[in-house]
Amino acid sequence: MASRTEKMQDVLRGLRAASPEVVGSALVSIDGFIIASVLPSEIEEELVSGMAAAMLGVGERISSELMASRLEQTYVRSEKGYVILNAVGQEAVLVVLTTRQAKLGLVFIDVRRGSNELEKLI
């Protein structure tokens, strides 16, 4: 029987399989610790988790102060691609890295489905 972490990694691998433009993903606690990840070897888990926690903090403050609601999703676009953060319950965030060619509508659908699956495993 697969462990909970293995099941989480299977969900993360499924994101990559669903879209070739997804280059990596990670599930990060709101405290900034890696729970599970499927990242390219050149990307450090600690860097992803630290940046995700910082971005989540700013995003939550913006959402709370300006929209009077809880953050659900935020993303950053660069010349090389996107970093997407999606809430997974109230305890974690899904971080997805994509290429610039990613079809965001399709990626967002996959991210939402993955987030729902991961929330059941937390």
Question: How does this model look, in words?
Answer:
The chain is 46% helix and 28% strand. It has three helices and five strands. The chain has helices spanning 4-18, 45-67, 104-121, and strands spanning 22-29, 34-38, 73-77, 81-88, 92-99. It has a five-stranded antiparallel β-sheet, sandwiched between helices. Helix 1 packs antiparallel against helix 3 (104-121).
What's the helix and strand layout?
Blueprint: H1 4-18, E1 22-29, E2 34-38, H2 45-67, E3 73-77, E4 81-88, E5 92-99, H3 104-121
Antiparallel strand pairs: 1-2, 1-5, 3-4, 4-5
Helix pairs in contact: 1-3
Assembly of the depicted chains = single chain
Biggest sheet: strands, sense, closure? 5 strands, antiparallel
Roughly how many Å apart are the termini? 17 Å
Radius of gyration: 13 Å
Q: Output the structural class.
A: alpha+beta
Strand proportion: 25-35%
Q: Based on CA inertia axes, which overall geometry fits?
A: globular
Number of helices in the DSSP assignment? 3
